[in-house]
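INPUT
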Amino acid sequence: MTLTAPGSVQADSSAGGPVPPCPARGLVCRNCGATFGLIAQHACAECFGPLEVDYDPELMKAVTREQIEAGPQNIWRYVALLPVGQDQADRVSLDPGMTPLVRADRLAAELGLTGGLWVKDDSANPTHSFKDRVVSLAATAAKGLGYTKIAAASTGNLANSVAAHAARVGLPSFVFIPSDLEPGKIVQSAVYGQTLVAVDGSYDDVNRLTSELGETDEFEDTAFVNQNVRPYYAEGSKTMGYEIAEQLGWRIPAQVVIPMASGSLLTKVDKAFRELTAAGLVEATEWTIYGAQSAGCDPIATAFDNGWDVVKPVKPTGIAKSLNIGNPADGPYALDAIRRTGGAVARVGDDEIVQGIRDLARTTGVFAETAGGVTVAVLRKLVESGRLDPAKETVVLNTGEGLKTLDPLEPVVGPTHRVEPSLRSVRAAGLIG
Amino acid sequence: MTLTAPGSVQADSSAGGPVPPCPARGLVCRNCGATFGLIAQHACAECFGPLEVDYDPELMKAVTREQIEAGPQNIWRYVALLPVGQDQADRVSLDPGMTPLVRADRLAAELGLTGGLWVKDDSANPTHSFKDRVVSLAATAAKGLGYTKIAAASTGNLANSVAAHAARVGLPSFVFIPSDLEPGKIVQSAVYGQTLVAVDGSYDDVNRLTSELGETDEFEDTAFVNQNVRPYYAEGSKTMGYEIAEQLGWRIPAQVVIPMASGSLLTKVDKAFRELTAAGLVEATEWTIYGAQSAGCDPIATAFDNGWDVVKPVKPTGIAKSLNIGNPADGPYALDAIRRTGGAVARVGDDEIVQGIRDLARTTGVFAETAGGVTVAVLRKLVESGRLDPAKETVVLNTGEGLKTLDPLEPVVGPTHRVEPSLRSVRAAGLIG
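OUTPUT
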């Protein structure tokens, strides 16, 4: 199965507008540089290295700000920089993206940041996490490659997004989750009425199982969004970087703090900034990328601290479950981006994560899931340790919604007062004199 | 306290753009027609009838589609049709609005609707309900009227939105909730670090208490968003109607199904359609408005069935808690809009509500709270009873997020399969041969 030939100009889309050329010209191995067509494969046939999409730089340079700004208010405004979805009729998407970039002056003041602070808030996406971006790309690639079903292994956000995408278009989906997930996360994934398989095992067990299932005849026509179509899936994360630059007025921020699970999001935001610069869509400026992990799952932080190029797997613990990938596939590439841009990695414990959620909510009105708490707590730590420059403009990424991870907050936040329904009781509580 | 004089052209805003004139010229009593300035009052001094904002029709007619389309991707694009916020620097807002209008072809096919079906999905707002629209207007009016604090009585969505708005700008807020709310809803309201008062009583008790508190010296400088600044607050709901028309290509849909608690949202969507028509922003076409209630709280449905002009209060029960207002302030006005446009009201029980949530999620990928389940189940009932024309274009409103009301779903949705992490177990479960 192969996608449309590179650069080919297609007929007008069903929506009536002109269809831009597809800038993707193939897949390339990030290890050995071997090239392949736009196929359904995520590992290099030569060296087993990870494949990523390779673009035609001339087609990227032909893209203009005006062309993007005239597009829809979602990720597809960047379709001329993406590998799939050029024809609107081909998209399988909840149309995520163009989430708010929130100015966080009050948090900046508390932390002593004078260069400006922003929160890129992806809890505003349709299923309330950044996973809608990658699933929209993966599902569209799956359709283009001729697959008739989609599937994923997940601990929550990805499960939710895959099932919702499948429901929107009536595509069968198969989502595999550990059976001991919180009941709330199971409801979120089950409500869409798609196939939801609870697996008695850890997330790693679930992942291994879906890898095996991908090899069976029964799943031959199934795209596993973060396995066989992973190169397309991963490109969805670039749109978060594009949006930050566009929302700042076509400018790359000096410093960005990004949570890391597999490390893929961090590498793709860096890639987005490099692409925008190379395409002449922003002025060439320097940026520094910082990685955030929880102390309960810190393999990339440990590799960074020790100067390692490789990442040693860990067994994850702790409340930031959406970041709990003990063997991060993109760890080495994340380390590379962080080191190349002069950044750093920091880790924070569960108490700091909860405090990070509360600090962000209290000062911005943005209610983040635990991963967002990790990022805000790491921001604080980087400022306090002098590794992040308080005089430079900084963006932190919130990748998901606080309503998805209420459990760690329940013991620590609650009503400030409790009264009877009478003025006398309100007076006794000290609210009035 | 009075807002800016009607129609006055202000200086350029801090954002640098021209500031449109404010079209509001005062408040008017919906009962007796008495007029007042733009003051902080919600009941007529003559007859105790409800006050609403009165606009200068000439200023409304001067507004163009191009002017609106050039505005921001949120409710403030309609500022030339709103009573407050003309100067961007004066706004107290999370910038809600421009939420997706989702084409629901699969649900339409199941229900036999041939004229086109859309879901206006307000779960995409910053705190994931339509309340962000009204709170943005109320908080902005509060600031303009010189108040230094905001407050509300609420059972959830409003509490969340008021506390988040207050947190964003660092304004003190006081939110009063019944103490027996679900722990999740308490967390959502408490995480913003504002004053949260749990009251041992029903929502009606809480409401009475805040009315009394509004009369105390201590709360003299406090705007109660749905009490003393209610005329401005309520206008926020108009933006949902404006957006539907604009997103359809400046066209009013033939049929709209709207959930009713106080009835205010329904009356304001109807008002938005009337204003757009009068201002020449859409062609004059006919529309029909349908009201949705739960069987556990159906005072407006009962009044409709019996041909009453007044609404007899009930004691609310049932899972659609955000709609559980037993004595709906805008009930008579909602009845008027429904009857004037040839619509109807229907009610659905808790099982139908859960089924409505599941039907919507399964066919559109939109996960609604119980109020959205009410609306979808009522849509089905109206079609089946022949009261809604299947050949006409229909829009249903989802006012909130499914993650906020997980409890009723937990017993009925879950994994479709449970397996060990082995191909053998997957085979035994019938997923592969």
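end of record. Confidence is low (pLDDT under 50) at residues 5-15 of chain A.
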